[in-house]
Amino acid sequence: MENPTITAAEIARLAGVGRAAVSNWRKRHPDFPAPVGGTTASPEFDLIQVEQWLRTQGKLPELATADRLWRHLAAASDSPAAGLAAVGALLLARQRGSRSASIDAQLTPLLPDVDALADELGPQGAFDELWQRFSAPGPGRPFATPDDLADLMIGLANVGGGSVLDPAAGSGAILRAAVRAGSTSMYGQELDDELARLAGLWLALHDVPGEVSGGDSLRADAFAGRAVDAVVCHPPFGATNWGDEELGHDPRWIVGTTPRTEPELAWVQHALAHVRVGGHAVLLMPPTVASRRAGKRIRGELLRRGHLRAVIALPPGVAAPHGVPLHLWVLRRAATDAPPPARALLIDAAGGDLADTAPRVLATWREFVAAPDGDVEEAGFARAVPVIELLDEEVDLTPARRQPAVVGEASGEHLVRTRERLAAIVGELPALLPQVTATPTEAPASGTLTVAELARTGALQVIGPIRSTPSRAEGGSVAHGQGPLVLTGRDVVAGVDASGHDDGTLLERVPLMAGDVVVPVAARQLISRVITSDGVLLGAHLYLLRPNPAALDPWFMAGQLRNSANDKQTTSLSGSRVDVRRAQIRRLPLDEQRAHGEAFQRLIAFESAVAEVGSLSAELVRLTADGLAAGALHPAGGAK
């Protein structure tokens, strides 16, 4: 068995020194490990020997177990994905209390660190820590769909507690976003077998029902005949050998045979073929698909039959390839006998930042869904375009070419209203910010208790996370999108009102009460929200913390949960599950809690106002620039 090797440059990074220092060590220390491979110009050294030498010399910084294990894992494996998958299989076997299959001999020296990390964090937490390092950009690591984009795509699909398929799953970024949003059944297929195995291990270690298969989704569909509530996908772009010849008359081509030069439209039809009637498909697409001549017939049929509901232009750089301003296509599987909608929504969000525009995109989409034949129109941003207008000679669906111009008196009035609203909110900011002072250094430090300890003392009740079953098939007793209102994980993260509905899939109905605090199980950071009114149900994959009002103030507890220390204590950047029971809460008298809670409540209002200032500022800049460029506005005091 050969130990992993390391280059001189990697030794320098390992020890936190420059390359020259490593060169000096080799010359001045006869016991420095000799090269075991590489070339004279770029030698390679035995990693274990180098670490031992550095440790003996006092030149090796102390590393956390996860960092040390990942460094060895990446060096010992043929690929980071294969190494992480091998360790993931060991951790899954440990979680299930069974003996694991044989492990690659190169990974055998890493078993003590694997066991130590699992003892410290549990198998799931250990895998998440390693996943976090695998997901960081680096050589040999695939471009994953960023979390903020994946969350937007899942939000547009509006799956709630339903089933999701990603036929180009990669390492599972979109499936993880679906888990964060409360979906209960995950299915995926990925051409790269190692990435497929990784995505499947993540689901298994997080107890999420589902399956991720390897293979080519277009040529060898692993889920043929299966219909899900939503298909969400970031397919490969520009494939020249995607199987058009052998798939010429495939039954998935529900709106016609896909042209050879339109592989992305093949993925669109593949997605539609797997969505139940009434379900949504959301795909990330290159912008040229909206206007290429070869795809005109397919685009026209998608519109005529009522499947294509929206095209959304995104800001540049949101995902690979980062130099291309990508589009999102939102489709809804239409019943064959239903009259097609009269309008399709086109949104041009290419001019902003995704973090700022995503909530606006979601709000506009939901407005359109609520009244699909309504006249949604936001100058320069969104327009519900009559389908008959889109079915012209080109069937060009590029959002920017269909937006109403910002001209005339209306644009001037809009600019004045926006400026006045911005000035009013900016004027309110100083009053919203809570007044705080530094705690005297001589004041005694207050102790802390974990949420689990508080629950044991009766200070609060921890409920959930509630689980749900896969969505019912078509024809179930409750129609999709109806039933009692449910607060979902996506609602909590976005800070919006409850948008889900109980369609019979919740395994337990828990009504929320004013004063409850909810925390999503899966999020990129610990997020807490205080419930201010009764009447909605607790959604799937949410913790409910119900404080005893004689012992805990809910706003104080929510503020304590939402701090950087608890982020590190309970979550990882990979979007893994939050263990809220480990969060620390300070021990304070109830009157002091209420004072802290009031300050935190004001801080939340301040944060919301600042976010609105950012949104209004961007809108004001856009309105002014568009008006000046179009001649609808002119500088005050200047020539008209």
From TrEMBL:
Residues 143-353 form the DNA methylase adenine-specific domain. It comes from the Bacteria. CDD domains: AdoMet_MTases. InterPro entries: DNA_methylase_A-5, SAM-dependent_MTases_sf, Type-I_RE_MTase_Subunit. This is Site-specific DNA-methyltransferase (Adenine-spe cific). The lineage of its organism: Bacteria, Bacillati, Actinomycetota, Actinomycetes, Micromonosporales.
